[in-house]
């Protein structure tokens, strides 16, 4: 009996151990199935998006990762103690690093069948990848991998999205090269981001607008034609009604028209771009901002056939820093007030810029007959290199010979030029203030201005017309044509102001 009891106890213990092992294995099997099922949904759940040292992630705060649709995610690890200095306010946030993987990574080749050969139309693959990422909560990254070229036709990337979406371009995106290949109703935009709040466009890749045949159309201005009707040409990248936008690290070239246009956006960070097109390419502004506020453009190089950066009506709070321009038409506010429209621009700062071999340096241009105001503008520490018009306010802007003077104008008030130095092309005066007869320019301030001719020894005199202000330090050339005080007809300027 004693032996039998011991045997029974031994067998019972062995059964318990075996049952425990089988139970653990079963749990692990279920867990493994759940993970595999989730991986099929996200495709590359644990992968880090490709990145370069100069292409960190978006500036806007990232959302906390949300559970995926299939199964629950494991609990988030405890937050790590911060290390190193805090980022400068307004600086873009770093890209996801080890232990900070994005929720979902969508490879347009591996997951959506893009060919990536530069010949096959990959529009549907990239658009479907965007739509899929947009519908998932959390952070999604759509990857166009290095070593591939993707032909993409006119496309709208539409939001709002459930989470934030990053379009990571490490390869090349190319447009159709023939204007005849574009739909008749889609000749004004190429890649459009509409209501895409929190979108980030970044990478070490190239976006090529293939603009040459658009520029060669016989109706283009430099071909003796006009810019109406069949001469509508696509903007390469347009962000419309999208907030908290980041564009970083890319090379963009040869847009048929503007390279970037931000319209009706709020919170835009542009950083580390290279934008280029030939010097004679028509209307190829590098970055155009309109009806948009809270904009940072930094550490960017633009070489093109029109304005380096252009600021249109309805723009508020723009900071441009460490930008190199040229050749081109410089940094421009305007043109404003065309056909009697009201234009409001305020709080614009351009700092630590270089402008080379351009038609203009820093310019404000308005049409006769408009209304509204340009106010609170600062140009500081701008280096000019053989620029035709380094400092210019032109309130008689006109593209034909039929423009007439008018009794109204956009009010230009409170413009500071500080530390504007370098050389100018002697075809025009280094400083040109041509202000409206009806609404003079006021509170124009100069300090530390030193502009010398690029060739020859003669220093040209500035041109002033109906402009009020002062030079707080001696300038080269001397600006003796500014008038003191405030003109009588703008003593009460409240009706002229916008903000």
UniProtKB/TrEMBL annotation:
Protein name: Polygalacturonase
Entry's Gene Ontology molecular function annotations: polygalacturonase activity
Keywords, alphabetical: Cell wall, Cell wall biogenesis/degradation, Glycosidase, Hydrolase, Secreted, Signal
Region ranges (Disordered): 32-102
Composition bias, Basic residues: 32-46
Main subcellular localisation: secreted
Family per record: Belongs to the glycosyl hydrolase 28 family.
Biased composition (Pro residues): 74-95
Location in the cell: Secreted, Cell wall
Amino acid composition bias (Low complexity), ranges on this chain: 47-73
Signal sequence segment: 1-29
UniProt-listed GO biological process terms: carbohydrate metabolic process; cell wall organization
Catalytic residues, chain numbering: 329
